[in-house]
Amino acid sequence: MRDGEWATAATLADALGVTPRSIRSYVTALNARVPTGAAVESGPQGYRADVDASTALRVSGTDAGTPRARLHTLVRALLDEPEGIDVFETAESLHVSAATLDADLARVRGLLGGTELTLERSASRARLRGSEMAQRRLLSRLAHDEMDAGSFDLLALRRTLGEDSVGAAAFGPFKTDLVAELGTLGYFVNEIGIGDVVMHIAIAADRVSQDRGLESGAIDARPAQQEVAAIIARLARRHLGIELGQGDLQHLATLVLTRVVAPGNDAPVDHARSRLDPEVEAAVREVVETAAGEFLVDIVYEDFILRLALHVQNLQHRAREQAWSRNPLTRSLKSTYPMIFEVAVFIASRLQERLGIPLPDDEIAYIAMHVGGRLERSRRADQLLTATIVCPGYYDLHELLRSSVDRSLGQAIEVVGVETRVDPDWGSIDTDLVLTTIDPDEPADRIVKIQPFLTGADIERVQAAAGRIRRARRLARLRAELERYFDASAFVHGLDHLDPSASDRSGPAATSEERVIRHLGSRLVASGVIDDDYVERAIHREQLSSTAFTDALAVPHALEMTATRTAIAIGIADPSIPWGGGRVQVVALVAFSETDREAFQTVFEQFVEVFSERESVQRIVRRATDFSGFLDELVAVIDG
């Protein structure tokens, strides 16, 4: 569904780490979910998501016999029964053996990490021990598991809480009214985060309906917290028919306020600073200035620092509550803007050291959104392509055309000249693009034929030509850089067959990522490019956030640029190997030196761009059995 294109069974099998035969079985099972249509279309080119694919996702909860559905049903039963469940009766109700249920209980224990809950087993009874808040965190984890994309989904929430949960149909209007009322108080609401808040409100309403409310805390609520609590109490009565106690209102108001990114846009800077802990502001300011110097990015602005500091302060509150905010844009931010995400990882790493805040990927993605927003505002005009308009003079026709081009394409190109001769000297026109109403002497990629009165089709053609020119320039720079950095001695084919007991010190207990980083790193260490400390720091960077920036490519590296020279070690896996919750087929361990700081952005972003195209990846993986073949295929892909 994300790609929207045809994919062969072999390609999908690589992505999932299964056989093509399994893919065919999965397609059959998916299509069985929508008897009146098709979730997946089959054809000579393979498979692609059909119009009913989203329907198949929504009905996934009906597969009650799947391990995940059974696990969630079991956890809900444990949460609903304070005295625990009878293992044999539960196994019978789920139509599985007692041995299968014992295995499921072992998986439940795996879910309890970080929840402060324990699973007790006494004879035939099993029960959860822990606070009400800890039990809600477990429900939140289940709901997030149901919402695979990380976005708010009422149907998935209802599957988590049970089909008879309180007011499931009322949460849409509840959310609408909550956002509206927060707006009247002058708050700028983070719509991505507010969906997560509504999930917590749904969990609270469900638990309160079972007389499982939170006890009231002893902390005096701030005026802002009292205002938000009053809104939640009123909306819970109106939409859900639930009377929330002070403990729940206090907790939920805190969650709402930690997802209000900042006061409204018109609020003065001094007002924003008055809400900030000076220690947080100082830490953010120092980290942002360091990141700007490390990555050569223009982000040191007062408004950016204050907004990010407010976000980090809210993040501290969420960390205390262990109520992390999901971000449905995490995957796309990482794959589309790897450089911005890398700056965010650096900032997150330094903030973690300064403030002791653990930062999962979704929270790093929020920082990336702040960074991306700032860079978008400060983007330089010299990034525009220059253009010359060729339009033979007839009254003010050329002026009208220039005005239309500026209005429709001003964000992509800058018109620097207008040629009104009917026989222009085409060779003397040296701008990036030539937009002409007459036929040129010879066609060229940079010359685009347009109408005297600009049409929608003209705009699309110019945008497409501009995109081609930008991409060609980026990839030309990439090719020049890569040919300098690749090392034949650091090419490995067959990452899928690495021996865990090999001499790279990873050992059998190491993760797949660590084994590969150590294996590729040992090649660069042997070449004198990096030392063992760099390898350890690359592993630490991987633990902060997966470097699998596309569905096929991982780019592990250390945050500090301490290599003696810039070099790239390449590993090919065929079939794919697990990496950061997904699977990859190409791993590029990059070691950057301080002198190549500017090249970092070029190599990093464009290398990821090349490997974001499935056909390019498959071509390189299938044919690159040695270093020479890899380089030949990579250059061929770059040159198009």
Note down, in words, how this protein is organized.
There is one protein chain. Strand 8 (385-390), helix 19 and strand 9 form a beta-alpha-beta unit. This protein is an alpha/beta fold and 640 residues long. It has six domains: 9-55, no CATH class; 64-130, Arc Repressor Mutant, subunit A (Orthogonal Bundle); 158-253; 269-363, Orthogonal Bundle (PTS-regulatory domain, PRD); 381-454, Rossmann fold; 473-639, 3-Layer(aba) Sandwich (Mannitol-specific EII, Chain A), CATH 3.40.930. The two termini are 26 Å apart. The radius of gyration is 28 Å and the shape is globular. The protein has helices at residues 9-16, 20-32, 53-58, 67-80, 87-93, 98-111, 132-146, 154-161, 171-184, 191-209, 223-240, 246-258, 269-274, 278-295, 302-321, 330-336, 338-355, 361-377, 397-409, 456-485, 512-526, 532-544, 597-610, 614-623, 627-639, and strands at 40-43, 46-49, 85-86, 118-122, 125-129, 187-188, 262-263, 385-390, 413-419, 433-436, 447-449, 486-493, 553-554, 567-579, 582-591. The protein contains 25 helices and 15 strands. A four-stranded parallel sheet has the order 9-8-10-11, covered by helices on one side. A four-stranded mixed sheet has the order 12-14-15-13. Strands 3-5-4 form a three-stranded antiparallel sheet.
Q: Specify the helix fraction band.
A: 40-55%
The figure for the number of domains is 6
> What gyration radius follows from the Cα positions, in whole Å?
28 Å
Q: What is the mean predicted local confidence, pLDDT?
A: 83
Briefly, what CATH class of the largest domain? Answer: Alpha Beta
Strand ordering within the main sheet: 9-8-10-11
Could you tell me the CATH topology label of the largest domain.
Answer: Mannitol-specific EII, Chain A
Name the structural class. alpha/beta
- According to DSSP, the number of beta strands is 15
State the helix count. 25
Our measurement of the CA-to-CA distance between the termini, rounded to an integer number of angstroms, reads: 26 Å
CATH superfamily of the largest domain: Mannitol-specific EII, Chain A
Shape: globular
Protein name: BglG family transcription antiterminator
Domain PRD: 275-381
InterPro entries: BglG_antiterminators, PRD, PRD_sf, PTrfase/Anion_transptr, PTS_EIIA_type-2_dom, WH-like_DNA-bd_sf
Pfam families: PRD, PTS_EIIA_2
